Amino acid sequence: MPLARSLSVTSLSGLEEWDEEFDLEDAVLFEIAWEVANKVGGIYTVIQTKARLTSDEWGENYFLVGPYVESNVRTQVELIEPTNPALKRTIDKMNSSGCKVYFGRWLIEGSPYVILIDVAFTAWSLDRWKSELWEFCDIGVPWFDREANDAVLFGFLTAWLLGEYAAQCEEPPHIVAHFHEWLAGLGLILCRQRQLPVATIFTTHATLLGRYLCAGNVDFYNKLTDNLYSKKQWIMCSFNLDKEAGDRQIYHRYCLERSAAHCAHVFTTVSQITAIEAEYLLKRKPGKWHICLFLFIAGRYEFSNKGADIFLEALARLNYLLRVNHSDVTVVAFFIMPARTNNFNVETLKGQAVRKQLWDTAQTVKERFGKKLYESLLVGQLPDISKILDKEDLTIMKRAIFATQRQCQPPICTHNMLEDSGDPILNCVRRIGLFNSSADRVKIIFHPEFLSSTSPLLPMDYEEFVRGCHLGVFPSYYEPWGYTPAECTVMGIPSISTNLSGFGCFMEEHIADPSAYGIYILDRRFRGVDESCNQLTSFLFQFCKQSRRQRIIQRNRTERLSDLLDWRYLGRYYIAARHMALAKAFPDTYLYEPHEPTSASGFRYPRPASVPPSPSLSRHSSPRHSEAEDNDEDERYDEDLEAEKDRVNIRQPLTMPFKNKSPAVYGANGTGDGV
User: Mind listing the GO biological process terms from this record (predicted)?
Assistant: First the structure.
């Protein structure tokens, strides 16, 4: 199914509208590749097929940049005059300076604008630009490599284009330049070397050296994975990368590719296996978001009954699993349980002071920056970015950073405990050794007070706190009902409870697959403590492996269960109790006939139609359609449709079989009008 931005947003109601966070009207995107309107390999297909999506997002501010090839232009491009005034001035200036730059529309779906540069027309500058490349970047390009020569010409011309466009804009522009593969990478290197106001992205579709090594029958991937996970130093790896590139006479190309990867603000690859390859061969991991998940347990300070003991033990095992699997996930576990304290501890207050100092420093530098920027614009000059931040600004920021450095580990507890040595949570933390060290993937914060919006440490109400977390963990051994997991469900937050809690048993009764709806039921009734702890660890680890999309889908499902906890449903039990009491107290007036529910009158939430959120069940990376959809390629996950299916399975609240014997007392029409 063709991907479209509108589909990705409307089908996942939990995703933010990116347009609301990023005003793209003031930004311009240049996407640079040798295969723009020039079919050479697979990159052409990548750029061509995603052009419509990018055009829909960026509109008139999206420009593809590629080489001018006359045979391709005749059949694929409609040459027109630039509609952007600054871009028109840029192209006119370059053409008057000895270049040939063309502007038009690429005749593909989306009809994106293209800027095509005649590389051969500026070949007279090749030697000069090669000398400049050697002088400033220490990269030499041999005369016999025609493809590399084209890359040099294309790189200098694209950097010229971007720099000229920035100079022609009347207001400081927000330029994003996305470079594909090493053939376009030199333009990125020059943008950074010349300090152009351009945000750069470099995408490698396949590394040069990886392609050559695989073609040479060197058992590349086995040697690669062995080195990546053996914790050896780079110098001990099987491949001498410089020698391998030199032996294949591609050392200059390898240098261009590796430099582009390191110079880019954002470095990406097209797959996970390419990411591993790039980390080893180019010595930079592709950029990705660092995931930080917030878990919490809250309630009365009953260490065993509320399951704080098993939670802490599971966190220690989770920390081990995350570390040995080289996970990028950091888990922050909050314990919100009131205990006897006398005040906030010094380290916590110091951390708050440091945070405030960082904020004040950022505001100060921001004001100074804005003043200098205004003064520069006031006299009609574009600001020199290198001079706007002076030595004093850098000194202020360095002092602020220095103040954040600690000589000890971050504190576990936010307060001074009156009985520190006898506190169950702190003693357990000491036993399992989770002291919030930099190497630990699991961090613990013990807040021995209930939350309040007036607190100087966590100034928020409990509801705000819960909505900001990803998972509530309540592995209680004794819990008659369980309001905390119920509150999580109503707010759409997944939770872990047990089959020894009223909430857990209730959900098991009403949901065919509770975990698919974000309700994890821990077995503490038929398993020993160690087995239950292993099961809890498994729940936590699987939750950490979920993608952001899977967590959003799960939260949507969890929130739909709130109907089960609505008083319109649960209130029927109170109604029945009141009717029963009336019938027993006033048998001559009221008659109550208990209703025996049958299997047909009950209901259970079915398994979701879409893929279960747990990676262990789906075994597919997001976004992947469900296993149920494997039999129907045209069917996809539809959040609204799935919600409607779930609503159909919700039975309306029962009408209590309430009868009265005396119409004169209760009302002749049976509606209560006579009371």
Answer: glycogen biosynthetic process
